């Protein structure tokens, strides 16, 4: 690896912090939905289900209590020898309803303390502005399909850019921005069951997110020209099920859809197939000349991405098996192995994806999520998670191969540094961390932290700058 390669670990605010109702913080969607055992899947497709009920357990309210335990956790991260911590700011901590004119000082102070703790150990924060935590108040005005959110997002971005201009260098605007097209409620607070035209709502919301992201880049560069501001996508190339031309065309269209929003953030223009799709669907978006100029003039510095697996599609899917893939379904690839949750591992697909992205964008890539989930229990001794070590090792080998191919990669932060609440299921049994947290799916446990075998293995990977895998 190059000497300045940024080794790190990753997490997110809603999945780790807890303290969801403390110190003036407002609500986000995660704060009103429960777990997969209590209608989480249904509620993240139709939020009305959760809004009309009270559950016994809301996983985000406590999460793993990073809100109070951040000094301990950051110290553990520092002992890995890492250079960066990829995390996020919860928008609703800064502007509880999103619409306030003045920020919540308690929220700003919390992140001051977190970032200061990181910097004390020489760890740079890599910060996502919106990691699926748009303030819930905006749900009632249509979510991101409401143009007013652009103003409020830029106000929020300006506030945190100004506050942390000397503490944070690397920023990403919107986590997995392509998620709004597949899961509009998770990605954009747009309830598909309440929309007359779901396609219009999600594409309009995506456009407003892109404008908001571009304006955030503009404001950020004005505040600190040295900021590195990137976009972030849920990545993983889609393969055709066969060489049948209809399958190849299906896969080509799926990839173009996933890349479309990143194309805008990197190139400043919508790709022709995306515009053609809107036309064929009869969708006339609110997309002004000023919007298009903003997009063209304020492109990103790097492409952040999550990668867990590749995807598979076919023109006729009716008789084919499916598999899970980072909140989105895919066909099951008969050539790949699966984990406890049906996610298939494809290390070579990682190399393919990295090369595809770099060839397309010619910008540095930052891998900010990549990891392995498993059901684990701890009896006091370190968990022997060789399966996680194997997964990360296999992917790091392909990352190194991609760099030898000529791909420019800034850094790597496995998901996750510590066990956190799963975004898709709301439970912690789906464990990704290098550190075990004593917590069960009902929120019971001591919250004691215990490093796993993978923690010590990754510590040596960082120490040797990837030479010893």
TrEMBL record:
<dbReference type="GO" id="GO:0016798">
    <property type="term" value="F:hydrolase activity, acting on glycosyl bonds"/>
</dbReference>
<keyword id="KW-0326">Glycosidase</keyword>
<dbReference type="InterPro" id="IPR017853">
    <property type="entry name" value="GH"/>
</dbReference>
<keyword id="KW-0378">Hydrolase</keyword>
<comment type="similarity">
    <text>Belongs to the glycosyl hydrolase 1 family.</text>
</comment>
<protein>
    <submittedName>
        <fullName>Glycoside hydrolase family 1 protein</fullName>
        <ecNumber>3.2.1.-</ecNumber>
    </submittedName>
</protein>
<dbReference type="InterPro" id="IPR001360">
    <property type="entry name" value="Glyco_hydro_1"/>
</dbReference>
<dbReference type="Pfam" id="PF00232">
    <property type="entry name" value="Glyco_hydro_1"/>
</dbReference>
